[in-house]
Amino acid sequence: MLGYLVLSGITTGALYALVALGVVIVFKATGTVNFAHGDLFMIGGFLAFTFHVLMGLPYLVALALAVAAGFGIGILTDRIAFRPLMRANLVSLVLATVGFSFILKGIARSVWGGKADLFAFPPLISPDPIFLGPLIIIPQQLVAIGGAALVMGAFAAFFRLTRIGKMMQATADNPKAATLVGIRTDRVYMYAFGVGAAVAASAAVLMAPLTLLYPDIGFVLFIKGFAAAVLGGLSSLPGAVVGGLVVGVVEALAGGYINSSFLEVSAFVVIMVVLVLRPTGLFGATAVRRV
Amino acid sequence: MLAVAHLNVWYGVTEILRDVSFDVPDGRIVALLGGNGSGKTTILNTLTGLVKPRAGSVLLAGEECAGLRADQIVRKGMVQVPQGREVFQSMSVVENLEMGAATRRDRAELRAGIEDMMGLFPTLARKSRQRAGSLSGGEQQMLAIARALMARPRCLLMDEPSAGLSPVVVDTMIDAILALHRRGLTILLVEQNVGVAAAAADSAHVLQNGEIAFSGPAASLLDNPEVLRSYLGR
Ligand SMILES: Nc1ncnc2c1ncn2[C@@H]1O[C@H](COP(=O)(O)OP(=O)(O)O)[C@@H](O)[C@H]1O
Ligand SMILES: [Mg+2]
């Protein structure tokens, strides 16, 4: 029981970590929390569903297309909900992302189905569980964990090694100095939204075969990813990964040992406990004051 | 090289710069002095595109820069070393230099530029992998200058490079500025420290309440009790 709960906690936690990475990269670059981030995840999942299940494209092709489309929709988020308000106050910015979240949800409902519709995504590999001593492993979980690890590796390499990745880091570090050396910070913000959404889409495609998709899944995932990001300090990328794993495991254990209804609220509990006991998160250097 | 004419800048309802005009001739060092809040930083920010002027022109080698975006001005060859250094604290010395070349694409040129800066500032060479935030104030100032040079400017604008540095480090700073001068760089040097301005610059302008109140050879600053007393409060 414990082994199974921890493993499934790590699986969902790895995917929460990917969602959290997107929240963190946008926050680091722009100082704003993108409340539409979960809906970018949801749209990514539905696009993959369309490409893979409805159109019959191979899983990896569907993944690539969904990630590319996610990048595009992220850039659209910047154009619609962020850039026009960049100089406005934080409340307007946050409300704009909330509004954009409703728009994405509305689009998903009208294209793919209503509030109560659930969509099943076929498993990639044999759904038969593997019994490893007392441990029961669903192979798709290993695919999700491995996939999440690959995406995280690519993400880290992007920041450390690429020119645009370093420009994003420089802009997050000191926007004024970044402008003075000739970095176009407005473009950096756009790429931050794009890359964040692309990572969220990859998480959705990895998660879809394990759960069901529905148009309202975005908010649920946003809260998990946000809890993970807050736990990690909101501006630390390694913090987001650790935060995601912690939220996933805590949630699985709470659901298994206490009551399954704790599964849904445990992320809120994590957010509140962190904000009260350690407002800078586990890895954060600065307090979470702008949210 | 640089010709600033009739510059007029407002922040909201406050007029900050009033009809500011001055030239920085090719290859010269011109100092811009003035007390706190007189508008020195605002001039540099206007020249480099952070602040848009309401009126006036900024000609760099005959090309209009007023109203252009910051990155366009960097590409034209005018770069600011900001007040308070503003290095990328979380990034290494080398990464800071790489970011200085953000507007340039050539990889070989980037490597050559980094080599060049390591030669010019040996302290930075010894600490090339260190985080910029861990450097001393003087080292951060050198890094901020080196980062600006990575864009290969024709005209360098420095905002109070000697502020907060010990006298020994200030002397090193003056040497570095003179070394850049010998390389043919045109420099606009904003200072509160009249000594530094007199030691490094050819000519000087004194700013008071957003207007140029005195212009003359830099050497005359220290001999002119009137300037010292009325414009710099010494
Ligand atoms: N962002 C701003 N908004 C409004 N007023 C400003 C701003 N920045 C500077 N000022 C004002 O403009 C004047 C000139 O400031 P500044 O150019 O920084 O002077 P200096 O660099 O000579 O000390 C000061 O009165 C200052 O209060
Ligand atoms: Mg100043």
How would you characterize this protein structure?
The complex is a heterodimer of chains A (291) and B (234). Chain A is mainly α. Chain A contains eleven helices and four strands; from the N terminus they run ααααβββααααβααα. Chain A has helices spanning 2-30, 37-54, 59-82, 90-112, 139-161, 163-173, 175-180, 185-207, 217-231, 237-258, 262-277, and strands spanning 119-120, 130-132, 135-137, 212-213. Chain B has 234 residues and is an alpha/beta fold. Chain B has one domain: 3-Layer(aba) Sandwich (Rossmann fold), CATH 3.40.50.300. In chain B, the strands form two sheets. A six-stranded mixed beta sheet of chain B has the order 6-7-8-3-9-10, with helices on both faces. In chain B, strands 2-1-4-5 form a four-stranded antiparallel beta sheet, covered by helices on one side. The longest helix of chain B has 16 residues, at 167-182. Classes of the chains: A mainly alpha (291), B alpha/beta (234). At the A-B interface, helix 6 and helix 7 of A face helix 2 and helix 3 of B. Adenosine-5'-diphosphate (ADP) binds at residues 11, 16, 34, 36-42 of chain B.
Describe how the helices and strands are arranged:
The complex is a heterodimer of chains A (291) and B (234).
Chain A: H1 2-30, H2 37-54, H3 59-82, H4 90-112, E1 119-120, E2 130-132, E3 135-137, H5 139-161, H6 163-173, H7 175-180, H8 185-207, E4 212-213, H9 217-231, H10 237-258, H11 262-277
Antiparallel strand pairs in A: 1-4, 2-3
Chain B: E1 2-11, E2 14-24, E3 29-34, H1 40-47, E4 55-60, E5 63-64, H2 70-76, E6 78-81, H3 93-100, H4 107-120, H5 122-126, H6 137-149, E7 155-159, H7 167-182, E8 186-191, H8 194-200, E9 203-208, E10 211-217, H9 219-223, H10 225-232
Parallel strand pairs in B: 3-8, 3-9, 6-7, 7-8
Antiparallel strand pairs in B: 1-2, 1-4, 4-5, 9-10
Bound molecules: adenosine-5'-diphosphate (ADP) and magnesium ion.
Adenosine-5'-diphosphate binds next to helix 1 of chain B.
